[in-house]
């Protein structure tokens, strides 16, 4: 039989009252306050310390630069977080300011840390004269001309939509149809790669011009699988040769004198990409003389003695003048 154990007598534990409130009541109030603080810091507090919106600018001209209160913000094709306030917005392209506007950003308060609040800015009115507008088009054409030097594109070198930008700017700036046609015809001269052609092919139909469409169709023969065109270039003629005696001091060497001539360097290739990268180029040469026999070391030593500027010690100066490699 187990022995009965007498437990010690202890006093009853009771929680004290606070402001005459029973423990269950003020604990419930404390939990409610904590919950309200959590809600406040999650939903409202972020907006108080970082109020603003993610703003998208609809610029009238493609790939414009955005300045906020005189400070460069970035390109118009991106979205930016802008703090609450009132700002002056300037729109630039090619270094030319073409529009200005005022931007007001309010302060959203609820759940800004979880939900991005956005704002889209409507396109401003254009504010530039005809000369400035043509300067912007000149900038677009210069961008196309520089890009035409790139003949191969890959994952690193990407082709920018330059023809789309030009077509959009020509339309937005309100040029007359003849000017638009001339500008695009000039731009089509710089189609040098399939990627550039694809950009032009997507942009020309936006202008609804039959001549541009016809020109683009002709250019397509350079890059299409069909329509293989062979260029018809005349072969260069052999320049006339006049025999002469080349003399330098006491040295006399039989030689030949050539008149000025245009030399075609390269070969006849199909007029189709990528063969056109090896098309011949015409090089203009002025008259020159060429020795028919090699110069001996003794003859060269005599030549340098009479013409010390050609000595090896003067090599750096000769390279600076472009006379030797």
Could you explain how this protein is built, in words?
The protein is α+β, with helices and mostly antiparallel strands and 325 residues long. It has 4 domains: 15-49; 50-121, Immunoglobulin-like (Sandwich); 130-222; 241-320, no CATH class. Helices cover 32% and strands 22% of the residues. The chain has 9 helices and 12 strands. It has helices at residues 23-43, 45-49, 130-147, 162-172, 177-188, 194-203, 210-219, 297-306, 315-320; strands at residues 52-57, 65-68, 71-75, 79-83, 85-93, 96-105, 118-121, 241-248, 251-258, 261-265, 281-285, 288-291. The chain has a 4-stranded antiparallel beta sheet. A hairpin with a 2-residue loop joins β2 and β3 (71-75). α3 packs antiparallel against α4 (162-172), α4 runs parallel beside α6 (194-203) and α5 (177-188) packs parallel to α7.
The share of residues in extended strands comes to 15-25%
| Structural category | alpha+beta
Total of domains = 4
Main sheet characteristics = 4 strands, antiparallel
What are its keywords?
325 residues; four-stranded antiparallel sheet; 32% helix; alpha+beta; three-stranded mixed sheet; 4 domains; Immunoglobulin-like; elongated; single chain
Describe the secondary-structure layout:
Elements: H1 23-43, H2 45-49, E1 52-57, E2 65-68, E3 71-75, E4 79-83, E5 85-93, E6 96-105, E7 118-121, H3 130-147, H4 162-172, H5 177-188, H6 194-203, H7 210-219, E8 241-248, E9 251-258, E10 261-265, E11 281-285, E12 288-291, H8 297-306, H9 315-320
Parallel strand pairs: 1-7
Antiparallel strand pairs: 1-4, 2-3, 2-5, 5-6, 8-9, 9-12, 10-11
């Amino acid at each position: 039989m187990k022995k009965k154990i007498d437990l010690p007598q202890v006093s009853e534990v009771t929680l004290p009252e606070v402001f005459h409130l029973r423990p269950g009541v003020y604990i419930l109030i404390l939990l409610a306050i904590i919950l309200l603080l959590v809600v406040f810091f999650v939903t409202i507090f972020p907006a108080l310390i970082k109020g603003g919106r993610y703003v998208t600018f609809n610029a009238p001209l493609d790939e414009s630069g955005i300045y906020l209160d005189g400070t460069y913000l970035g390109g118009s094709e991106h979205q930016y977080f802008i703090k609450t306030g009132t700002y002056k917005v300037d729109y630039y392209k090619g270094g030319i300011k073409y529009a200005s506007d005022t931007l007001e950003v309010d302060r959203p308060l609820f759940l800004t840390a979880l939900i991005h609040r956005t704002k889209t800015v409507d396109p401003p009115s254009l504010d530039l004269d005809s000369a400035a507008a043509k300067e912007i088009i000149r900038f677009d054409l210069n961008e196309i001309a520089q890009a035409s030097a790139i003949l191969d594109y890959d994952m690193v070198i990407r082709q920018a939509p330059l023809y789309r930008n030009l077509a959009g700017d020509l339309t937005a700036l309100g040029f007359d149809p003849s000017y638009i046609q001339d500008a695009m015809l000039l731009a089509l001269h710089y189609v040098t790669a399939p990627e550039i052609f694809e950009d032009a092919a997507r942009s020309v139909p936006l202008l609804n011009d039959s001549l541009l469409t016809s020109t683009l169709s002709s250019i397509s023969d350079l890059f299409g699988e069909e329509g293989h065109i062979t260029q018809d270039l005349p072969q260069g003629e052999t320049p006339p040769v006049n025999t002469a005696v080349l003399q330098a001091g006491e040295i006399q060497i039989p030689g030949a004198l050539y008149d000025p001539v245009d030399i075609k360097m390269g070969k006849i290739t199909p007029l189709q990409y990528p063969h056109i990268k090896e098309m011949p180029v015409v090089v203009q040469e002025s008259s020159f003389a060429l020795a028919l026999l090699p110069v001996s070391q003794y003859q060269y030593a005599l030549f340098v003695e009479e013409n010390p500027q050609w000595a090896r010690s003067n090599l750096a100066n000769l390279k600076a003048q472009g006379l030797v490699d």
